[in-house]
Amino acid sequence: MSGHSKWATTKYRKGAQDKARAKLFAKLIRQVEVAAREGGSDLTANAGLRTMYQKARDASVPLDTIERAIKRGTGELDGVRYEAVNYEGYAHGGVAVIVETLTDNRNRTGSEIRNLFNRNGGSMAEPGAVSWQFERKGVLTLPKKFDEDAITEAAVEAGAEDLSDEGEHWLLTCAPSDLHTVRDALDAVGLEPESADLALVATSTVEVADEGEAKNVLRLLEALDDHDDVQAVHANYDIADEVLASFEG
Asked: What mean pLDDT comes out for the span 117-122?
């Protein structure tokens, strides 16, 4: 496996260190609830719930909080009913954007997401307008201290498709159905991933060379990501690392 996936250019999500702990927990708990409602409470039989459960545990969400979320999802406890709704649009320079949300009121959320696009120089698009430029993948990150050959040997047999060097970490991609198999294979040989998730990866990117335009793109993505109902924001931008570092700073 070889090549550079430019993962940083296909997905934008502020890290936990940039978010209030309670806000991050709320988003993860909501994901657990929906996964449990859609596929039941059995982690072995419900791959979606297993993924969300592990994400919550990786973020240090208390176990009892996760278990209550599962019970709300299956109806054992009362709770708000959320539904998954995706919104599509464009940022500056024709950058394609997909916003994944979980909401209890799609009219309210849709209106607020549209306002965020409009206020930050973007525009909403019809469903399907940009989604064809992305594909769902299993995505795992591993620390650079792990040997590339060791990762490849363990991951390929489990179904991994590509391993790339992302500077601060290794990035491994696979088919969504192989995510848990790949993670288990890595864990079995002591190569524990830093994260493992299902995500939308862009099949092509749009170069944003102008620094001012790049920052406009990133401001839109940050504004969208900060919305309480938004679970993830994906975009197919290609922005220089130094511009990304400047914005994050």
From this structure: 96
> What is the CATH code of the structural domain delimited by 16-74?
1.10.10.200
Is residue 74 within 8 Å of residue 36, measured between CB atoms?
Answer: yes
CA 71 to chain centre: 24
User: Is there a contact between 213 and 201 (Cβ–Cβ < 8 Å)?
Assistant: no
Q: At what angle do helices 47-58 and 21-39 cross, to 10 degrees?
A: 160
CATH of region 1-12+83-249: 3.30.70.980
pTM, 2 dp: 0.81
**Model confidence over 82-99: pLDDT tens digits?**
999 999 999 999 999 999
Q: Where is mean pLDDT largest: 19-28, 88-97, 237-246?
A: 88-97
- pLDDT, position 241: 76
DSSP 141: E
State the pLDDT at residue 210. Answer: 87
Identify residue 221 by its one-letter amino acid code: L
At 210 the three-state DSSP class reads coil
The DSSP bridge partners found for residue 230 are: 101
3-state secondary structure of 226: coil
